[in-house]
Predict the 3D structure of the following.
Amino acid sequence: MQDQEYVKQLFERYRQGKCTPEEQVRLHNWLNHYAAQEARALDDLSGMYEKRARRSKRWQRWLPYAAALVMVSSVAWYFWPDEGKDAVPDYQTVGTDDILPGGNRATLILADGSSIDLSEAQSGIVVEDKRVVYENGAGELIDLKGEVVPLVLSTPKGGTYQITLSDGTKVWLNAASTLRYPSGFNGVDRVVEVEGEAYFSVAKDAERPFKVVGRGQQIEVLGTAFNVMAYADEEVVKTTLVEGKVALKVEATGERVLLDPSEQSTLRGNGISKQTVDVGAYVAWKDGEFNLDNTPLVDMMKQMSRWYDVEVVYEHEVPKERFSGTVSRNVSLQTILALLRISEVDYRIENNTLIIN
């Protein structure tokens, strides 16, 4: 049995955002363990909203409150005396039909086509002048022998990884994404190519612009932070600027667009537009969260598919529900889906397929 006072303090630290990564893992483990038993609380919440849902076809689902309900109920349930209750495991426990979240998974592809499966115990790699090493210095991956060669970092579904390029630029790759880059930048500019989603914190170099190419557009910066989403299965390419300034060029037409902080460009076909957005909703994945902002169910499910490595199938017409709120990416899939109990969306999991009824 865990020390009750310690767990109370840990939960309070979590609410205040003061938990260490290890402490957060323990809380997420408890959340996963108890989410199934506490599903009744979500059913009660659903009942509270039934009348409101019938009155409004565009009822807004607020995930944070449901998530908080699950967390608070789980912790409270833990403190209630129950002789038949099992001790909380220190490892992640999920049901046989549940699916664990993604983690640090990536492959480094070398110039000769060979590949290295990167350690899941590490979170990133660093490209140095003559070698590639893990972020914490735990072992050399490649001896570059002073040569500049093309390299590729690729994450699978359910994978994420970081890389520090030779110029000091930091890149976070989301699930099912690929970054093509040289081991060194010797030309008049610094050019990389991205497929999928990546967050860039670009090292400043006034003499050599940094360029990101992908999905029909080119992004040019000198030193800034931005997110680019360029998945092949998305209809649009979205570039979200956090700080600095970027210039985008549509490759097909040559049209240029300038972005200021909190602006986002949307490339659809050969047409590009921009708008002001809440950047938090578009970069939260880098910090281990799903941040939904009036997000359509179909877009939410694309995120779930990539992170949990599941196929999403719609048996009938795609539901029109939208969702808002912030949920950790460190919980199991069933914990996320339990939040759908407060909506009218039915689902089931068969093997590695999530079926929306």
Residues 39-55 form the longest helix (17 residues). The chain has seven helices and 25 strands. The CA atoms of residues 127 and 166 lie 5 Å apart.
